[in-house]
Amino acid sequence: xxxxxxxxxxxxxxxxxxxVWGSIFDxxxxxxxxxxxxxxxxxxxxxxxxxxxxxxxxxxxxxxTNQFFNIHWIPTIFFDGMFTAxxxxxINSFVEFFEESRINTNINESDNETEL
Length: 116
Prior knowledge:
The chain has helices spanning 2-21, 26-35, 37-42, 46-61, 73-115.
């Protein structure tokens, strides 16, 4: 069960990252932003994209929520989208924290070098 949660989380984070930031989607992303404003805003937002990725994964893989709760498939899709948005946001916040820490460390090191 934990394995499914971890796999779901990494699939969702990977798909969201590729759609929002991946260079392979640069040209389609720019075209969508230019021609389809709503969808352009959607794929520029990590939380928004992750929600829809969660809906898609839920439909294609049969749902995650129904593994834990005995509920109808429609609420399963909704809750899977919400879970996916939350877990992708959490992973992204974790990654950004360490990216900012690395940047701040590099800035502090270069400040110390210029003082010497």
